[in-house]
Amino acid sequence: MVRRALQQPYGGADGLQAQAVCATLATDPGLQPLLPYLVPMLADEVGRRLVHAGHLQLMLSATHALLRNPHLRLVPYIHHVLPAVLSCLLARISVE
């Protein structure tokens, strides 16, 4: 469900699915075993859709949700997270 929602343009029909996924990412204590797959997938999605501002916003929201989750240890995956976040920020600056 998470992967499908994050790969849809702008998080689905009206964004409710994306909001639900971000809420799950921010609170679910059982996501730690999925981080080796989830974090690189987020980074790949950013790289593929740099020209779609709405999708970049969704990826930033998902990343923020993971960072807010107190049950997750993201330090081993920071080498995936930082380039993706910086790419979003730089893409946003170049558009403005």
CATH class: Mainly Alpha
Number of helices: 5
CATH homologous group name:
TAF6, C-terminal HEAT repeat domain
Q: Enumerate the spans where pLDDT stays under 50 for 5 or more consecutive residues.
A: none
**C-alpha Rg (nearest Å):** 13 Å
Sheet with the most strands?
A: none
Structural class: mainly alpha
Mean pLDDT, to the nearest integer, reads 83
What are the secondary-structure elements, in order, as H or E?
Answer: HHHHH
Helix content: 55-70%
What is this structure's SSE topology?
Layout: H1 2-7, H2 16-27, H3 35-48, H4 53-68, H5 78-95
Throw out a few tags for this protein.
RNA polymerase II general transcription initiation factor activity; Serine Threonine Protein Phosphatase 5, Tetratricopeptide repeat; nucleus; 5 helices; 69% helix; transcription coactivator activity; single chain; 96 residues; TAF6_C; mainly alpha; TAF6 C-terminal HEAT repeat domain-containing protein
Structure, described:
Helix content is 69%, strand content 0%. The mean pLDDT is 83. With 96 residues, it is mainly α. The termini are far apart. The radius of gyration is 13 Å and the shape is globular. It has one domain (2-95): Serine Threonine Protein Phosphatase 5, Tetratricopeptide repeat, CATH 1.25.40.
Concise account of the structure shown:
By secondary structure, this protein is mainly α. Helix 2 runs parallel beside helix 4 and helix 3 runs antiparallel to helix 4.
